[in-house]
């Protein structure tokens, strides 16, 4: 049995310890916001936060996550509303097809938590691993640039 903390809730999972987190999230727990893209950790559609770091769920066996804090796209918003990054995505009309967007948003949250005021170059570098077939990269960058952290969290 593997103990996972997903979006603040405890889960005890009785699956093969080598099972990738992506399939536990989608098929066992029912959190389908994390998407399957390439299955080899290259596209970023399956990005989740593991202890506040962006990681690829398709490549993470659950045996490596016992006791870790996992946040999916569903865990970013709360009773008070959408996460500031989600709001910026809407404000800047970022998504087209939307398939990659949960991974893009997760990566942007991780970037801003670790670097509250990134430069354009730092945004491009941090977001480089998230592929978007629609090519909305300029809107992603613009949305991230509008978010500032004054020490009390992302605004």
From TrEMBL:
Xref: PROSITE patterns: 2FE2S_FER_1, 2FE2S_FER_2
Keyword match Iron-sulfur: yes
Keywords: 2Fe-2S, Iron, Iron-sulfur, Metal-binding, Oxidoreductase
Matching SUPFAM superfamilies: 2Fe-2S ferredoxin-like (SSF54292), CO dehydrogenase ISP C-domain like (SSF47741)
InterPro entries named in the record: 2Fe-2S-bd (IPR002888), 2Fe-2S-bd_dom_sf (IPR036884), 2Fe-2S_ferredoxin-like_sf (IPR036010), 2Fe-2S_ferredoxin-type (IPR001041), 2Fe2S_fd_BS (IPR006058), Beta-grasp_dom_sf (IPR012675), Diverse_Oxidoreductases (IPR051452)
Superkingdom field: Bacteria
Domain 2Fe-2S ferredoxin-type residue range list: 1-76
Pfam entry (one): Fer2
Stated name of the protein: (2Fe-2S)-binding protein
Organism: Flagellimonas spongiicola
Lineage of the species this protein comes from: Bacteria, Pseudomonadati, Bacteroidota, Flavobacteriia, Flavobacteriales
């Amino acid at each position: 049995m593997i103990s996972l903390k997903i979006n603040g809730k405890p889960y005890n999972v009785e699956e093969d310890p080598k099972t990738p987190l992506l399939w536990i999230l989608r098929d066992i727990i029912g959190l389908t916001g994390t998407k399957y893209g390439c299955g080899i950790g290259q596209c970023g559609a399956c990005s989740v936060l593991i202890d506040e770091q962006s990681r690829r769920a398709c490549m993470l066996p659950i045996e490596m996550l016992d006791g870790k804090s996992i946040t999916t796209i569903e865990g970013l918003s709360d009773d008070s509303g959408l996460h500031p990054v989600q709001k910026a995505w809407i404000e800047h009309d970022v998504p087209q097809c939307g398939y990659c967007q949960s991974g893009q948003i997760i990566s942007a949250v991780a970037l801003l938590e670790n670097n509250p005021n990134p430069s354009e170059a730092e945004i491009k570098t941090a977001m480089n691993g998230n592929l978007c077939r629609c090519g909305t990269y300029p809107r992603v960058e613009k949305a991230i640039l509008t978010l500032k952290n004054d020490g009390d969290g992302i605004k």
